[in-house]
Design a protein that fits this description.
five-stranded mixed sheet, 4 helices, 5 strands, alpha+beta, 147 residues, 31% helix, single chain
Length: 147
C-alpha cells in the first residue's frame, strides 16, 4: 500500500487534464521554466486527488481537494496570489489566549481567514466532476498529461 496524489486541471467544459506532480512542484517552487502556457493569464480550477494504492494500482480515493490557481501572462503561478493564500492558511491557526485580553472583544481572525480561504482559494466539487475523477482513476483511461 502507498499514498499517491494525482492532479487535474478542470477545464471550462468540466473535462479533466492531468498535470504531472513534477510540473506542479516546480511551479510552487517558482522555477522560471515551470509554467502552463496554454492557461497563461487565467484562474484555473485544480483538483488534487489523494489515493491509496495497493499493488501499485489505485484502490481508494482518500480525499479530493479543489483549489484555484492564478497564472500570470507567462503561465507561471502568480506569486502575490500564492503569498496571500499562504498567509490566509497561516491565519487559520488560533493563537493562544492572552491574559490581559479584553473579554468584550471576540477574536474572529481565524474565522475570517477560513471564510476568505473558502471563498477565494477553493471551490465546491460537483457530482459531475467527481464522477469524471472516479472514471479517470479507476477505469485507466488514457489522459493527456501536461509534462
Amino acid at each position: 500500500m502507498g499514498i499517491g496524489i494525482r492532479s487535474y486541471i478542470v477545464k471550462e467544459d468540466n473535462n479533466l487534464v492531468k498535470v504531472s506532480s513534477t510540473k506542479l512542484e516546480k511551479m510552487y517552487r517558482c522555477e522560471n521554466q515551470a509554467s502552463l502556457p496554454d492557461y497563461a493569464g487565467q484562474n484555473i480550477k485544480l483538483v488534487n486527488v489523494i489515493i491509496d494504492n495497493k499493488n501499485r494500482k489505485p484502490y481508494e480515493i482518500i480525499k479530493i481537494e479543489c483549489t484555484y490557481l492564478r497564472l500570470n501572462d507567462k503561465g507561471q503561478l502568480d506569486s502575490k496570489y500564492l503569498d496571500d493564500e499562504m498567509r490566509c492558511i497561516g491565519n487559520l491557526i488560533d493563537l493562544p489566549c492572552i491574559e490581559n485580553r479584553n473579554p468584550n472583544v471576540v477574536d474572529a481572525y481565524s474565522k475570517f481567514a477560513k471564510r476568505k480561504l473558502n471563498n477565494m482559494y477553493t471551490w465546491k466539487l460537483t457530482s459531475e466532476i467527481e464522477a469524471s475523477i472516479y472514471d479517470k482513476i479507476f477505469n485507466n483511461k488514457k489522459l493527456h498529461l501536461i509534462k
